């Protein structure tokens, strides 16, 4: 028991340090997030070059990207960037694809009951669903600017993110037998969803992308810009083999939107 | 300004929805927003059966951040209960100390159900938690019936006989995994970025332990009592020795 004294006696101070570090971390995050739009305006890919001026590996990859993509949009790096980028890029795509828009709207309407049957609380789910549908209906109005502005209103934009997180969680739970093999650490699919999918500001991994793109049947191509040997940013398609309508750029820890030439 | 206004409006919509959902008091809990502020609610809960809080009725405040439901609510108990200090924010794993564990699909109802379920658990070691005996808690439970809130009146009138809605799968999972702890309001560190939560404080307890309260029994007990006393003792001894040296020189 004596040995316990020492370890426990120092704990409060250590924790206080941790809390301070976490606090500082949050403040930095807040600062970053306040300075960047939730979804930015279109910009040239060459704007990336300034960030990697002394980095030949990244510069080569940016050059290659520049051949394939005409521009990009940045998303706020707040941990929701995958969901927000995905949603905006896909909704923007639907603006010019009316048939797919109708299908998607139907699917989105049905998703409410599916998620309720999955065990989510009805009345909070309805709250997210109704706001999500409000934004989906903007696509029908065909006004790009209005859609863009809505994605930059914190409340609406976050509601879209929440709803996509719930759809992702629903898909993971529905197909738990399959997804359980991809979950790291000793936890169940349900625990993983509660810890890594449903809470806001939790970053997305492959498993989130696979589940969401499968649930909505939307092809996503992610270009990975990393330290790898290749001279190009390697592409991964989710779900594999489906026609691509959303292009995303991945840099370690962050997703932005790409527009192909 | 536009951005702020709109961000608020989804919160307002959501809270109106919750106010409607919770408009009928139940036998376990009731809650309603203050007339002039949708972001502050008062709640009443019944102490869980087969516990020392059985028969008790407890009243308190819920403070909602402007970012609700993206950020969690804060709970403050007002009725003396012997489990938590009154007039202090208490901290569940669905609280502002660990915003990363709060989920927007939870609600005020979820938070209240979790609070009731967590009352009979042992709060040893966590600040804000009170170590009253079962007898003292029972006697507070009896006394609680006569407790009245300045704005809501006699709290024994605030619960009804209606059965509360059964818990959903999501809710019961949450309630099995939630952990509450007291908050150390003296250790205020820095102002928070939220308007409704004036301060963020430091917690001195363990991280929330999911489904894992017993293994930490000894650690927590040591940390809170003997461990802390030892530290104080050592600090006192050192200061005496230093002082002696100083004065003798």
UniProtKB/TrEMBL annotation, chain A:
Q: Name one GO molecular function term.
A: cysteine-type deubiquitinase activity
Q: What is its EC number?
A: 3.4.19.12
Q: Which InterPro entries match?
A: OTU_dom, Otubain, Papain-like_cys_pep_sf, Peptidase_C65_otubain, Peptidase_C65_otubain_sub1, Peptidase_C65_otubain_sub2
| Active site per UniProt | 78, 81 (nucleophile), 254
- What's the top EC group for this one? hydrolase
Q: Name the Gene Ontology biological process terms.
A: protein K48-linked deubiquitination; proteolysis
Q: Which GO terms describe its cellular component?
A: nucleus
Keyword Amino-acid biosynthesis annotated: no
Task: Tell me the keywords, alphabetical order.
Answer: Hydrolase, Protease, Thiol protease, Ubl conjugation pathway
**Record has Transferase as a keyword:** no
OTU domain location is 70-261
Pfam families in the record: Peptidase_C65
Q: Where is this site: Interacts with free ubiquitin?
A: 210, 224, 226, 250, 255
**Catalyzed chemical reaction(s):** Thiol-dependent hydrolysis of ester, thioester, amide, peptide and isopeptide bonds formed by the C-terminal Gly of ubiquitin (a 76-residue protein attached to proteins as an intracellular targeting signal)
What the record says about family reads:
Belongs to the peptidase C65 family.
In its UniProt entry, what is this protein called? ubiquitinyl hydrolase 1
Q: Which organism is it from?
A: Aphis glycines
UniProtKB/TrEMBL annotation, chain B:
What are the start and end residues of every segment in region (Disordered)? 182-201
The protein's UniProt keywords, in alphabetical order, are:
Membrane, Transmembrane, Transmembrane helix
Annotated membrane-spanning segments are 226-247
CDD domains linked? UBCc_UBE2J
Return the Basic and acidic residues bias intervals: 182-196
Q: Name one Pfam family in it.
A: UQ_con
Domain (UBC core): give its ranges.
10-173
Q: Could you tell me which PANTHER family the record lists for this protein?
A: UBIQUITIN-CONJUGATING ENZYME E2
Q: What is this protein called?
A: UBC core domain-containing protein
């Amino acid at each position: 028991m004596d040995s316990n004294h020492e370890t426990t006696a120092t704990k409060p101070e250590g924790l206080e340090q941790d809390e301070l570090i976490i606090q500082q971390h949050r403040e930095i995050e807040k600062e970053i997030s306040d300075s960047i739009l939730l979804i930015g305006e279109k910009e040239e890919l060459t704007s990336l070059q300034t960030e990697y001026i002394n980095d030949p590996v990244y510069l080569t990859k940016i050059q290659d990207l520049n051949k394939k993509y005409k521009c990009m949009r940045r998303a706020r790096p707040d941990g929701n960037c995958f969901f927000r980028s995905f949603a905006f890029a896909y909704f923007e795509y639907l603006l010019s694809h009316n048939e797919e828009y109708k299908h998607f709207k139907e699917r989105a309407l049905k998703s409410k009951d599916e998620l309720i049957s999955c065990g989510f609380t009805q009345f909070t789910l309805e709250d997210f669903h109704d706001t999500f549908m409000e934004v989906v209906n903007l696509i029908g109005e065909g006004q790009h600017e209005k859609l863009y502005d809505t994605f930059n209103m914190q409340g609406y934009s976050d509601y879209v993110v929440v709803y996509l997180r719930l759809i992702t969680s629903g898909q993971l739970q529905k197909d738990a037998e399959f997804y359980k093999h991809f979950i790291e650490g000793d936890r169940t699919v349900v625990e993983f969803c509660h810890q890594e999918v449903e809470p806001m500001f939790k970053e997305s991994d492959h498993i989130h992308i696979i589940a969401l793109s499968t649930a909505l049947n939307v092809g996503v191509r992610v270009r990975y810009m990393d330290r790898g040997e290749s001279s190009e940013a390697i592409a991964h398609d989710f779900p594999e083999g489906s026609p691509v309508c959303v292009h995303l750029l991945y840099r370690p820890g962050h997703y932005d939107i790409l527009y192909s030439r | 300004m536009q951005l702020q206004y709109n961000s608020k409006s989804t919160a307002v919509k959501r809270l109106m929805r919750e106010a409607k959902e919770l408009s009928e008091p139940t036998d376990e809990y009731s809650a309603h927003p203050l007339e002039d502020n949708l972001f502050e609610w008062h709640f009443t809960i019944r102490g869980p059966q087969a516990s020392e809080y059985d028969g008790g009725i407890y009243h308190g405040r819920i403070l909602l951040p402007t970012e609700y439901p993206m950020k969690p609510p804060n709970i403050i108990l007002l009725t003396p209960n012997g489990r938590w200090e009154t007039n202090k924010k208490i901290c569940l794993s669905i609280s502002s100390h660990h915003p990363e564990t709060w989920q927007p699909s939870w609600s005020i109802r979820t938070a209240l159900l979790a609070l009731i379920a967590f009352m009979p658990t042992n709060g040893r070691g966590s600040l804000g938690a009170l170590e009253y005996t079962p007898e003292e808690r029972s006697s507070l439970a009896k006394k609680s019936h006569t407790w009245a809130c300045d704005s809501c009146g006699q709290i024994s009138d605030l619960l009804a006989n209606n059965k509360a809605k059964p818990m959903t799968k999501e809710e019961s999972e949450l309630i099995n995994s939630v952990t509450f702890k007291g908050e150390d309001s003296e250790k205020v560190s820095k102002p928070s970025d939220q308007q409704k939560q004036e301060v963020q404080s430091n917690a001195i307890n363990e991280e929330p332990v999911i489904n894992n309260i017993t293994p930490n029994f000894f650690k927590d007990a040591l940390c809170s009592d003997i461990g802390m006393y030892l530290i104080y003792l050592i600090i006192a001894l050192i200061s005496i020795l230093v002082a002696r040296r100083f004065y003798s020189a």
